[in-house]
Amino acid sequence: GLTPPHTYRQATKTGSDEEEGPSSGGEENITNPTPHSSPLALTRLLSRSRSSLQTSGSSPGDKQGSISLPHDYNPVALLTAVETLHTFTGPHADTTLPATGDQLSQAAQCKQVVAARRHQEMQVLGCLIVEMFLSNKLRLCGSAPVFAQRLSICREVLSANRDSLPRYVRSLVTLLLDESGGETPITSLGTPSPSAHQLLQPSLSSPLLPLPPYFPTLYSLVTSLHEHCQAITLLHRLRETHPDSEEILSASVQQLCEWKVQSVAKFLQQLVEMPQFSVDLVQSYVLQMMTDPDTAVSAAWYLFDPIARLLGPTASAKVLLEPLVRLYDCDHSLSSPRQLKKRIKLYHRSFLLRLIVRFRLRVFLDHFITPLVEAVGGYHDVDVALTTGSIEQSDDVEEATECPSVLSPLDEDSSADSEKTPVVDGKSEAEVLETDTELEPEVFVLETDDNVGELNQSEQIASLLLDLQTDDVEDSESQRDTPTHELTREMKEQDLATWSTDTEVVEEQKTEYNKTYLLEVSEVGVASMQWLAHRLGPVLTATHLSRNLLRMLSLCYAGQGCSQVHHSQLQGDDNAASVLQCLTSIVGLYGEQFIVLQYLPATADVISLARKKLTSSLEAGVVAHLTLLTHCMPQLTDNTLHQLFQEVILSRVCGPALRLISSSRQLFPGLVSARRAVVLKLVDCLHALMLRATTQHKIALVHTISRFYLAFSKARGQLEESRGDDQVSKVKEYESAGSFSPPQSNTAESDSIKSKALEELASVMTEELAYWSYVPFANFFGEPLMEQSLKNHALIKQLCSEYLQSCDKSQTENGQIFDQQGESDVEDSVGSLGTNVVIIGNRIDLQEPSLGRSASPNTSVASEDNPDNGSRRLENNSRHLRGNWLSYWQHEVGHTSSQLNIKQIRLLGFSGHGNSVRSLTTLDNENSFLSASRDKTVKVWSLRSMGDGNTTCPAQWTYTGHRKSVLSVGFCEASRLAVSCDSVVHLWDPYVGRIVSQTDPTRNPPVNTLRSLPAPSHQILAATTDPTLRTLDSRVGGYVNEMKVAMSSAGLIRCICVAPGGTWVALGQASGFLTVIDLRTGTMLTAWKGHDGEVLQLVAVNDHTIISSSLDQAVSVWNALDGKLKFNIKGPTEPVHCLDLYNGELVSGTTANRIGVHTSIDPSASFSSTRLRSDSFRGVLTTLQVLPLNRILLIGADTGAITLIC
């Protein structure tokens, strides 16, 4: 330290009050000056102190006193600091704070209350943590009703059992419980006590609580959601208090709901990419938005895909399937046109693709085909009353088209014949039928897989229509007694003149947007349906699309008013147009066999059932199927039509339909309008047949036409008995010979039914119908042939003349001058065959008739602007069913059993590999697959029907990044990436054709096989030669974990199988050992020696059972949890090196090219085996995959060839 200075006394004659100059000395013990003293007073005090020291310490002998100080000692700096502090504290030293809280401002008081509340909340959080981790210690303390007691108990338990808490919460609990009782505001670490603000800020809470990396994003999501909900709640309150601004506020609420969903979607997209994020944290928020009517559609569009990625297909089906199906339900009420426009996006194919990828194709077909078919048929009717007729069109349809990037480009059809179907712009002005009738209650029950594949599918269609009992139209007696409605031109003009009344205009304005919405949904649904038909293939299209479309077509004509004739067509034709477009597009894609084997049998069965018992549903079914036959007639080739013309079309369709419309023994449920609708559709069908008839068919067709015109005589036979008994006798003879009706007893009731039926028939068989139907026939066949064939030709000509006279009379009364022709014009116009027909090749086409009114307004076939006149040749599409594909399609559509039946029919070949195929992986949609070969390549293939079974397809793309033989290939469903190994693992994108990552061979041992975990896991299991099981994360592209399996190389891992739930993995080793490892903990569950030879293949039946095959020719079933043998499967006599499962059946392949099928996993299961024929498969079988939805096999050979067989 410093040496204290020596002091010497100096004699002076001056007094103690003599002023001294500035002193350079100082004292250590100096009394603190008074707070109000000045710097001059401090200097005087120091001078007196120095004088006293000199007086007391001086010696008599000293002549001159001096003080010795250190060289670097400077007391001036110290004095300056003291004076500065004195100057600062002096004026405020006597200031006192307010003693009571009454003097605080109101804001300060609120802040103190909030701070105290937050402090208590932190203590509550601390108590919760203690109670969770130390619950067994708190049981003896009992329950504390008061929070102070609860806090005291938790503090005592914490102080006694601090080491029992996990380390990562010890310091946090200590700070939260504040054991000091709040007396120490500063902790032992020198930081303030924690607060709510501190814990909610990631930058401040990290020292207290180790939060995961996704916490900031999750916190932002919840904060944004809370702010939007508060704003929406405020707007709802304003809407209640300001009813005059309800429209503006409602629009604001909808916009806020849209922003809320988009905000959540933005943060959720970031959370999906974070490895440690748990979907349970946001699942409740997403479900709430998907069930809220204001946000349901937007939440489905923006949030379904990211949340489904986190959940995986199985969990998504449990959590998200019900809200989405309810969203498609037509009972889901929407309150504004904007929400109606948004619903259109749900039917766009981009959203349907997400449903297929996230739910998988099987779930999609079971739950979403029904609402899509209903949308095509216009069954999603939401009655929204709008007061304005001009609705501003939004861009939601275009927004749906410009959706985010498609999930899987490979899922899109990439070949040339699978071009994209553009979304039809729903803004075009189409004629919308105006009707005040209500739609029929929804009774649309579509087919599920429980009844798919029965032998006679058309009979199932007809029987289901018989069960669809709708409410019959109840008409009063006064309605039945009304005069017959004749379709005269005069009444048509009156209808057009009086159609728009004031009331109807208002009603039209109210429902205009609703109808526009239905048209737009139907157009988008048609485009999506056509896209699905391309993707699904012929079998799934027939079992799920066309069957249900046939049911929907019948429902388009069901209900009150749908059979009414308006503007020369039925009111149900508008809805049926979209369904017919889908059905005909399926025929254009897969060929006329859909007509021959599905449409025509369904039509015949519906008419047959209608003749036995006519209901309103079957009545609509007859109209619908006759319309379908008319539209499909031009798509039949001449050869096919020649085979079907008489035996099927005339005998099973037209003949029974003629007997149905002329029957007097049963009434139509829809009365006159229903019978008229069937008659008009039958006339359309006969006109279509007329245009395609050849010379051989003319006689049979004319005979059918003559039977049709006998119905006119039958109708006049009751009402006009004066025409002669000969005509009546002809009608009775015709009815008894060709009519089939249920036996009726001779009672008054049967006579009444017959009388009413004849009245209906007379109301339908009018002069106008006779004219419009007869003229085209006479122009085509010629007057002599018609006169010779028709037994009542004179009656028909008389009816035509009466109709022309009535038309001339009505036009004369209205003051209009037309050049009308009489009966002689009819004779002149139909007198010869060659005046109005032209021969094109071996086909006769009808030209514009010479008579001005010779084209029927009730038929679109004879219309001049209809392109379907005659034969519409189908394009030479390679996907048309023929050869082996036709045989396979016929077998699957009429298949009655769900068991796999291998017929060894070759469907398609795939060539491109130059060496043995080692591994095959099929995508869930069964549209594409991957193959790995010894030629160092992995190829991507497209699965689609084409050719006759002998076609060979090239690969869509080839990955050439491997340097050795590729040993295994897989597909990570969660990341949508392909993974393959040749001792080095390659992770690559099959959709864009680029490598993502690959492991470093210098740092990691070689990999001999791999397997990806089921979604939502992004991990891939790779077995190395150590042997070690390593886990590779596809998001980071590297290994994240490893599990040692055996200590010797004899335990080389040959095969891997994963439990369906992803909880454990089973390994088959070269030494015959089997090992099961728990993937949740990384521990070994069990290991045992199961075979004497090398384990060749493993498959997991369920979460408790595995099946193994070995070189010792044994196929064994084991308990995966304890390794106990259940039983050995008998059957194969060679080593089984290929195993796969199909609906509880075991499919096996041996080294001798034998494919076997066990009907179940049971000791007593039956076994069938077949050896692959050389004409369908060449080479040695190396790998096998089952496509369960289409029930076909994909097999690879040592020659590099891949074959698709059924």
UniProtKB/TrEMBL annotation:
Protein name: Uncharacterized protein
Residue spans of the WD repeats: 910-945
Stretches with biased composition (Basic and acidic residues): 417-430, 723-735
Top-rank taxon: Eukaryota
Disordered: region residues: 1-69, 406-432, 723-752, 849-876
UniProt feature coiled coil, ranges: none
GO biological processes: aggrephagy
Presence of keyword Oxidoreductase: no
Signal sequence coordinates: none
UniProt keyword Signal present: no
Keyword field: WD repeat
